[in-house]
Amino acid sequence: MDKESLAVSEIEVGKKLAHAMDQSNIAFDAALWLYEGDSQGWKYIVVPHQEDQERKAFLLELSKLINRDVRDFDIGDIRLLDKNKPIINALSKLIRVDGIGGIRASRNTIDGQYVDDAYIYRMAIN
Question: So where are the chain's domains?
Answer without folding.
Answer: 3-123
